[in-house]
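Hi,

I'm pasting everything inline rather than attaching a file, because the server keeps stripping attachments. The sequence lines come first, and each chain or strand is labelled.
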Amino acid sequence: MTYTQLALLGVLGAVLLDLAVLRVGLLRRALFWIAYAIMAFFQLFTNGWLTGREIVTYNPDTTLTSGQVVLLGDWRIAYAPVEDLMFGFAMIVLTLDLWVVWGRRGIDRGPYADGPWQRRRDEREAQAAQRARTARP
Amino acid sequence: MEGLSQYAYLAVLGFVLLVTAPLELYLGVRVWRRPRRLALTVLPVVVVFVVWDLYAISRDHWFFDPDQTTGVLLLGSLPLEELLFFVVVPIAGIMTLEAVSVVRRWPAVQDSTVQDTSVRETP
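And the predicted assembly:
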C-alpha cells in the first residue's frame, strides 16, 4: 500500500474507533477540536523542521506530492506531505480516546488540576463570591 | 557543526517537551503525574505506530537522514528518534487536551456514572 492509502485508512480507522468502537465521541466535542487546532498549528512547525531540513524524506511514488520539498503546494503544507497531517490525526485520536477510556475506568482519573494558574483563578473566584456575599444587606 | 547536526531530530522532540512543560507546571494538568493512565495510553500507540513505521520503512515510504539522526536503530531499521516521537508527541497531545479541559472547565471524561475530578466545573 502507498502512504496515501495508509494515511486515509488511518483517518477512517480513527473515526470508526472514536464513534463506533470505543464510543468515546471526542470527535463530537469542541474540547477535542480546540485541542486539535492547537496541535495542528504546532505540527506545522515541528514537522516543517523535520521535512524542510530533510531529516525525513518521502518517496514520491507513495505520496501525492512529487519529489521537490516546497513550503506550500504540490500536496505539501509547511514542507510536509498532507499524508502527515492524516497520520498525525490518527495518532492523536487513538491517543486521546485511550486516555479518556482509562479515565472512565477510574485509572488516575483525578486529582484536580493544581498549578499556580489554577490556584490563582480559584482565589479570584473565591474573593468574587465573598464580595457578592458581603455586598448583600 | 557536524557533531551537532546528528541531534537535529532529537532537538525537535526536546522542543516539544520544553514548550509543553508549563502546562504541567503552571496550569497543573497532571499528565506526567498520572503515570499509570499515561503508560496505558502511550504503550498501545507506540505499538501501533512502530508497526506502521517499520512497514513504511520496509516499503521505502520514507527515509531518515543518517547525518541528522543519532544512528541508533531499533529492530533493525527504526531510528531511536522515531520511537521517542511516538512517546513524546502523544504526551504533548494529552497535555493539550487537558489544558483546554482545565481552562474551559470541560471535563475530558464525560460519563453519567463517574465524575471527572481533574476539572472542577463550577467554583
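The beta strands of chain A are 56-58, 72-73, 76-77, 80-81.

If the labels don't parse on your end, tell me and I'll reformat.
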